[in-house]
Design a protein that fits this description.
This protein has 330 residues and is of the alpha/beta class. The protein has helices at residues 38-55, 80-91, 112-121, 136-141, 159-173, 191-202, 219-223, 235-238, 253-256, 263-270, 274-277, 300-303, 310-328, and strands spanning 69-74, 95-100, 126-131, 147-153, 180-184, 206-210, 230-232, 244-247, 285-287.
Length: 330
């Protein structure tokens, strides 16, 4: 479970029996993709196909989770992830409660573990957690009898984003194995990049990480965990014959931290432009987890081009999260 240097962690060691139980494959929590097998990912993608079919119906709801309670705990602001989890749970007929730290007992000093125990006492079956601290979902998974689903923790992981990315790639290109996938942008601070590395390499893709050295860190940091991953600081070279280009949001505070000379300088060498996209395969997909800084990491014409599947990623996020809620609920 690699994390950026100096990243605050709240992880404690869990025993094996805490990760066994009710889903069809014996999985109790979804905390990251580092412990997912290829077969398990394929099963989730197949389940997502079924869930997407439900969402195409006139009445987009089935009674699968009727009587179950899903609590969305978001300690960070979110639009896509929070709303898609709410829509996913409602489509499965679950009772949905959305919890935000603002206005709750957290402001009175209540700890994360105590909050989760309170929700458990109130009847929560599944907790969906987004938190600014890496490892927060791991911590509460040890104190909650139900299931925990990680909706993004610090710089560490965002497993549902990675799964919806895998589903979108497979849906559009028919496979993931042996595809050349470029991940470009602020990789060092990206939980999306880390979870995608687990998912893409498990599914047999050839992954290249591309960023300026200050937004990537030392190569051994990545290759110690993912030996087959390539490192590049030249997008013009890396993008040649690429099948998928995944641009990551450039967090503008990185310039203030001295990691970039300027946003203009970054865009000159690492922005995904129409000219650069011409060097990739004609079938190449353009992806972005959002929100986008158009004109910085991606140009508006590329973001809205026929090769862009950014809107499909958002749509597929609901179906993927439905699949995970369904499997965790058994």
């Amino acid at each position: 479970m690699p994390s950026a240097d100096n990243e605050p962690m709240v992880v404690t060691q869990a025993s094996d029996d805490q990760f066994s139980t009710s889903s069809p494959d014996g999985r109790r929590h979804v905390l990251d993709l580092d412990d997912f097998s290829r077969a398990e990912i394929e099963e989730i993608l197949e389940t997502t196909d079924s869930m997407k079919e439900i969402l195409s119906r006139q009445i987009k709801q089935v009674p699968t989770l009727r009587g179950r309670t899903v609590v969305n705990m978001f300690y960070e602001d979110s639009t896509r992830t929070r709303i898609s989890f709410e829509l996913a749970a409602r489509a499965l007929s679950a009772n949905v409660v959305t919890f935000t730290a603002r206005g709750s007992s957290v402001e009175k000093g209540e700890s994360l573990v105590d909050t989760v125990r309170t929700l458990q006492a109130l009847g929560a079956d599944i907790v969906v957690l987004r938190h600014s601290l890496s490892g927060a979902p791991y911590l509460i998974s040890q104190h909650f009898r139900g299931s925990v689903l990680n909706a993004g923790d610090g710089r560490h992981a965002h497993p549902t984003q990675a799964l919806l990315d895998l589903f979108t790639i497979r849906e559009k290109l028919g496979r993931i194995e042996k595809l050349k996938v470029i991940i470009v942008g602020d990789i060092l601070h990206s939980r999306v990049a880390r979870s995608n590395l687990w998912g893409l390499t498990t599914m047999g893709a050839h992954v290249i990480l591309c960023a300026p050295p200050t937004l990537l860190g030392p190569s051994h940091f990545w290759q110690a965990t993912w030996p087959k991953v390539e490192i590049s600081h030249d997008l013009d070279d890396a993008i040649i014959d690429a099948d998928v280009i995944m641009a990551l949001r450039l967090q503008k505070e990185r310039q203030k931290e001295g990691l970039l000379p300027s946003l203009r300088e970054y865009s000159r060498f690492f922005a995904l432009t129409g000219e650069r996209l011409e060097q990739a395969h004609t079938h190449a997909l353009v992806m972005h987890p959002g929100p986008m800084n158009e004109g910085v990491e991606i140009t508006p014409e590329v973001a809205t081009s026929s090769q862009s599947v950014i809107e499909e990623q958002v749509t597929n996020g609901v179906a993927v999260r439905m699949a995970l809620l369904y499997r965790l609920a058994g």
